[in-house]
Amino acid sequence: MRSQFLVAGLITLKFFLKLKGGIISVVYTECYSTEYRAIAITTIGGAGRFFAALSPFIVYGLYVRDTYLVFLIFALMSFVPMIALMSFPVDATG
Question: Cα separation of 20 and 81, whole Å?
Fold first, then answer.
């Protein structure tokens, strides 16, 4: 029963992460010039690959401790980009 909830939760998380990435890409292409955007995307891509390599070890340790702790931490950490997006200017191109 737990594994069914875990799989359903992971599929839902994957969907929302893809949705979030599409929204953020539209925002940062409109807000920043090409010079800053290229540096930022490269830096974030490198950091993302580094932390993607580390995350299975962290997530597994949390999952062993408590099954739902991983989802709780993900939900809490999702508020950080939401607050950052809410603080972006409405239109920075003009």
Answer: 9
Backbone φ, ψ for residue 28 (5° rounding): -75, -20
CA 87 to chain centre: 17
Report which residue type is found at 71.
F
Q: What is the pLDDT of residues 63-91, one digit of tens each?
A: 888 888 888 888 888 787 778 777 766 65
- Count of CB atoms situated within 10 Å of the CB of 41: 14
> How many whole angstroms separate alpha carbon 35 and alpha carbon 86?
24
* Amino acid code (one letter) for 61: G
DSSP category for residue 90: S
| Phi, psi for residue 37 in degrees, rounded to 5 | -65, -40
